[in-house]
Each structure stands twice: as C-alpha cells, then as structure tokens.
Amino acid sequence: MARRGENIRKRKDGRWEGRHKVYHAGKKRYIYHSVYGYSYAAVKEKLAIVKMTTQENLLSDVTGMVHGMGNTDAYVLFSDVAAEWLDVKREKGKYSTYIKYETVYRTHLSALLGDSRLSNANVKNFLKKISDHLSSGGFSESLQKSICCVVNQILRYAGEKYGLLLPFLKRPDTGQGKKVLETFTESERQRMFSIIREKGAEPDKYDAALVLCLYTGVRIGELCALRWSDLDFLEMTLSVNRTVQRLAVKNQGADKSGDRETRPHGKRGTKTVLLETEPKSESSRRKIPIPAEVKGLLSHLDKSRPYVFGGDRPMEPRTLQYRFKKILAMAQVDERNFHMLRHTFATSCIECGMDVKSLSEILGHSEVKITMNRYVHPTMDSKRKQLGALSGFYREVCGQICGRTV
After folding, report:
1. CA proximity to 149, closest of 188, 88, 190, 104
2. How confident is the model at residue 116, as a pLDDT?
3. DSSP readout, 329-398?
4. Residue with more model confidence, 365 or 142
5. Which residue, of 131, 138, 150, 159, has the fewest CB within 10 Å?
6. Domain boundaries, the chain
7. Average pLDDT for residues 388-403, to the nearest whole number?
8. Which residues are CB-neighbours of 331 under 8 A, at least 6 positions away?
9. Is the pTM of this model over 0.70?
10. What is the chain's mean pLDDT, rounded?
C-alpha cells in the first residue's frame, strides 16, 4: 500500500516503487514514470531528485532517447533500467535465472552503480568505474563473469528501450592463468570403491549416487531429482528431465513447502527453498545409455517411492555433498566438490577412446568446445601412458643406434 500523500508503495518482490508524472509533449498529456529502490528512503530521495528537474526538459530527454536522436544530455538511472530489466527476466525467464541475476545486482551493483546516469556522454566513465571495482575487488573468475553478464544485459536493455548507443563492459584481465581443474586419479577412485565395498553387498543410496555419477557424469542436481520413471531397464537408459537446487525466495506469506529455511541475505533477510525445475538448458534434457552394472547398483534401493535417492521428494544436494565428503575422508582422499566426479567421468571417457561429440551430448553441453575446454583434463596416468608408447618407439631406435656405435 502506498504511503499516505505519496505515490510510493512496497512491491510484492520486496522492492519499493515511486511513481511521478511527466508531461509528454507528443501525447499532450501527463504520463507516469517509476523509480525503484530497496528502501522507502532511497525511493523518496530519487523522487526528490526527479522533481528538481523541470518536467518538460526531462521528458524531452526521454523522448529523444526513445527515438534514438543521440541526445548526449539525455539519461536514465542505471537502477531504474535494472529494475525494469529484472521485471522482464522474472516474468519471461526461469525463476532460478532471475534469482541469480537479482542477487548479483543487489549484492555487487546496486550500491555502487544504482544512481549512475546512463547517457551517451557518461557511459565510458560508468564502465571505467565498474572495471576498476572488478580489478580491485578480489572477485573470482566466475563471479566476474556473472557481474559482467548482468551489467551488459542491463546496458543492452537500456540501448533497446531508450535508444542509447552504449558500449559493453569487458571483463578486466586479472593476470591469473586459466584454472586447472583436477580429477580423481585411478588410485583415489580405487580407494573410494574399496570403502564402498567394505560396507557390504548392498551399498546405501549415497554410495550408489557416487558410483552412478562416475558412470554417467550427471550433475548433482540432476542426480538428486532422478525418479524411477526416468530409468528404463529394458532399453538400459537414464533420462534427465529435471534438476533441483536451493534458491532464495521472496517471503510472500505462509510457508507451505515444508522445505524452507531462514538464511541471512543482506539487511532484509530472506528464505531459501529446494526447488525442482527444468534442466539447466534444453541440451541438458537428454537420454544417457547405462551399463548393466547400474541396474545391479540400484536394485537394493527402495522402489516404492518416486525418487531414486530422495524418497517422496528430491534429495537435498547439500546432504549428498556432505555424505560424499565423509566417503573421501574414510578413503583418505583430499576433499573435493561432488562436481569433480563429473570431470573425472568426462576425462575417463576420452581416455577410453570416446569421441568428443558423443561425450558432449552425454554431458548435456550445447557445444563441443565446452566439453573440451572445461571437462576434459588429461591425467598424469594418461600422460605417462602416452609417453610410454613414445618411449617404446625411441627405445628401439636408440638400441639400433647404440648397437652400431658399439
């Protein structure tokens, strides 16, 4: 509900919106524009700034932007464009994607860039400001990529809607080389399997999930959302139709999911919920052939409930990650993320002679280069084997030479 005497209201998504009238010369009437913020005070301050500007002049700027007239004095606030763009993402995109973008904007961009003016004349200074921030902030490569992605999508939206000719942000060079991702060695895998074998003939669901990932390379969210109906033991295939992930949600009433928890989230606080969603991308929806061993691996699990590893609802990924680390500790293997099993699967497939295109489709990648650049890591054992073959060739040649020398 709006504050009495003011056109300011709190939205259902937790943000505040303030509306103000602007005279539209073309329509010859007043129209409403909105400003946004995460507090009542922030929106009130923005409205005060707007009211200090002559309404006719402000409208002339906006009209020039809409029609692409290249008015270098015209501007819109980055925060307002961001709010509009986030609304579009929430309405038309996946909820998980919207939450990711909203979190990146609120955490890393709102305070720094919110009141920045986007104009043809000012945008270079704007981009330098965010580039300097990224260069000095100690951000990971992944987070830098996310921040640049959000900034550039907002700039693209501003260009399309307001006719601004805006360059895009380039991720700064941190001087760090490409991170080399490790895989589990043959020795480490054998130690993990030994721990599982020691538990008896019937491995529990956590052990089965670990081995199934090494056989198929499925993501942890896809594994936790796997249903018995996704497994076809006649055709010996596994279908990936969904995934689960824990996401921040806006608290809009009573909790009916039974799977939410309060989590710190800035000053406002929020909750997270385990959501079952569509796969990561269209290419992630796939069918994977499975070997006969998988049927025996899963035969001891409870088939009376829909989810293979979760029962009546999907398994919590953090629970699987926790149990996985316990297995690593028992096997005296250095702690790593569960996702490392996926990398290990991909590398093992290449070493066994699988073609990259087949592997790419099994992993659910949209492009083969993603498979090669991110998931295929030659192991030391593989390098030793390849060099061993070369040594055999040179040993023969060397023997002939040494024989003639003698």
Report:
1. 104
2. 79
3. HHTT-----TTHHHHHHHHHHHHTT--HHHHHHHHT-SSHHHIIIII----HHHHHHHHHHHHHHHHHHH
4. 365
5. 138
6. 8-162, 186-250+263-375
7. 61
8. 188, 191, 192, 194, 195
9. no
10. 77
